[in-house]
## 1
Amino acid sequence: MSSVVISGDTSGAVTLTVPSVAGTNTVTVAAQTGTLNAAGPAVHAMAGGAQTVNNVTATKITLVEDFDTNSNYATSRFTPTVDGYYQVNASIGATAGTSLSYVRTMIYKNGTSYTYAYGAPRNNTSGYAPMSDIVYCNGSTDYIELYCYISGSGTLTITNETFFSACLVRGA
Amino acid sequence: MTILIDGTSGITYPQGATQIVGAGPAFSAYASASQTVTTATQTKVAIDTENFDTNSNFDTTNYRFTPTVAGYYQVNGSLRGTGTTTFTSIAGYIYKNGSPSKRAQITASLTAGNNTSITVSDIIYMNGSTDYLELWGNINGTGTLTFTSANSTDQTSYFSACLLRGA
């Protein structure tokens, strides 16, 4: 079996070794005719229990990891160490003790609101707001967090319908 | 580190090695201003401002993504609607080549002025030449009906896509 081997050392040098067979041996990796996408950071986290929040106040949500392939998720913050574009999915589920006006799922990037979705109540006291987007992160300082913003009355609680997930879908 | 390429196993690299990622088209854009619409009428969302557009495949004049690489794309579209008098439903659509391809809808009896978002996410094949995608929406209600958005930190009507797999 013929193989093409690309090897490197600690100095950063890369060696390409091609089969010792007659004829032309060409490896072509066109820039945009396919996608190799493996082992990039991926994370999924969910609400670990009920979390009470204040009315009409942007509040960071505390989540518990299901998986975190690159150890990039800590203190409910995703700081990917690979520069690139990330598919981000999130939803806030909420209940209100008396009445719920709306729930807002908010993606914060570097401590500032970036994108969000509104959810009207599905009944008088509960609702959720799912959302998905692609967000660029620089692989060093950029970070993403999940926030909620709920309008209602009575005790306002984040439910176990709440989650956050992200996965690298394209390099920088 | 050794990366092995052969005709049987494909590409093999050590676990924990530097990630291998693609460089296909990716874009993210949003509506920079609110847009008044007519009840029960399919309306293209004016996605006019880019966050990024790696391959210059998004047209901010026609609000259209025409990727130049054939393959399968993760596509996300989200639309926020409001109504000043009554607001009974909102639907979001990903149009492919001018026709609804994917749809998500919320139908409810909402109070006037309620804010509601609808998000559509799916994987869609694009041929890399003539296929294009647009975000459309439809609100049912009375009074002033609006697709709402504002600025870069208030992105509530937005559209994004990224190549996941080549054709």
## 2
Amino acid sequence: MRDGATRIAGAIDRLDRAVGGLAKAAAWLAGALLVAMIAHVLLEIALRALFATSTFVLDEFVGYGVAAVTFLSAGYAFQEMALIRVGLLLDAVQRRTRLRRCLEVACAGTTATVLWFIAWYFARSVARHLERGSLSETVAQVPLWIPEGLMLLGLIVLNLRITLYGLKLLAAETLPQGHRRHAEALAPQEHRSEA
Amino acid sequence: MDALTAAFLVFGLLLFFLGTGVWVFAALLATSIAALHLGLDFPFERIGAIAKGVLWRASSGWELAAIPMFILMGELIFRTDLSTRLFAGLEPLVARVPGRLYHANIIGCTLFAAVSGSSTATTATVGRMTAAALRERRYDSRLAVGSLAGAGSLGLLIPPSIMMIIYGVLAEVSISQLFIAGLLPGLLVAGLYSAYIAGRCLLQPRLAPRKECAAGPLLAPVARGLAPIAFLIVVVLGGIYSGIATPSEAAAVGVLATLVLTLVLGQLSWPLFSEALLAALKSSCMIATILAAAALLSATMGYLHVPATIAQAIGGLGLGPWGLILLLALFYILLGFFLDGISIVVMTLGITLPLVQQAGFDPLWYGVFLVLMVELGLMTPPVGFNLFVLQSVTGQPLAAIARAAVPFFILMLLAAAILTAAPGIALWLPSKLG
């Protein structure tokens, strides 16, 4: 019994490390996309100012980019505790470990359920785009599964992260992470101290 | 289910999910899904299709690109020594004014607000440069911290501003116009703060010790200290108002200009850039996920006719336009105690904007008013972002910082009252330049 529990906890731990790596990789991909978006905007300005022309796809590409950047960095933002929450109740029960853990599992469970629900509909949409080969109705004619797929990928990584966080709380004797002060998520991050 | 019950259902669910500590974006999503299912008996199949459509549209708007870019710019600036240079430049400038270095807080925040889109970044950057310096020189810590809490919130009002971008996207108001509308009100707030500090220090000179405040030559150090910031302000705001770039494009130009400046100052390195990039991704992800989720919430409230119901209820109160604004101000101040500014704006705008427009207010003016309300919320405990930032910068307890912020909270309320009585403060400049 004890042995089985330890094995499960170990397996979750290994999976957690793998997903952590995945989230970091997705964040780097988001970073590269953000840099590419900035470059695209600068190129557009240069083309307009110097040659009175355009790349003609700025709005479309930057729009796809924003969605991809947001969701691809979400798993990383979650593990760095940058996604904010209202901490009044969590703070109030911080010392009562059992209650705090139950509350945290419920929060993670709610979030994961909602996000898997939404990811399912994104997955269906992406599958449909692939099947029909749908293209965007612009000069670029982008296959729509690519931008939506990037957002879906980000959603999945975030979901895995949250689901595993909940499972870890259930399986092992780990304490919930002291949730960080909201502002520190927004403030530049040199002064951060782990709660 | 009638519309009033539906409204209570939505607020009850929101209160429940937010209150138990579910991540804000997920709480908004959960509320929407549950309300559509419980309130309208929508099958999950239909809710899923609605959610997917709304979330995709709300996440992939190109105007949103300005958010990660302006945040990246702020993160880059934060990691250079620009703030130290700014302080060195401001010191001789304020040495002769009653209140001396407290004004470095106000002017420093105002200038930083003009290159950074966020309040927390402004507070943290300026706080880091002045908090220790003022403590060393035995300035009154209460006035020092209070002025930082107050002036730091100017980051939202003085362009560029992430909150204005969010408002512009949601309310379909021109972001460039909003930016310029915030300028004079921002200077008004800064002016009120400076006047208060000067007044206090004239009455109690011991608050601002005379010694060790270098009052040497003026021009050269001031120019040296302020030049980098001035360069960035000219590039970003000049880019927008000369018509060369849209606000989103100006953000990209701002990132480039900051990188060039960092390179010229000899501080550009891969660790600096990659740290700034990852930090910017985290903050902008937090904001953009909440924005997307809020879009679903407002769609949900539309299905349930919540905005119309509340508008009717408030219409039934027979308030005049001023009564309405007063009621909204109280409502926003109350929300500001418990919620962060972005959540407040995205959750309520769909309800309050039509009300305000119907009462005859300009949506441009309302944007500025709303940002002032959000800034008030930054200074009020238990959830006030600027207080949290100052807690980590100064190490003082939250309650002490909140007390120190009280006079500045009142001054900002005064600014909101002046803005309501004289809307031209916000609207005059856009009408001249737009």
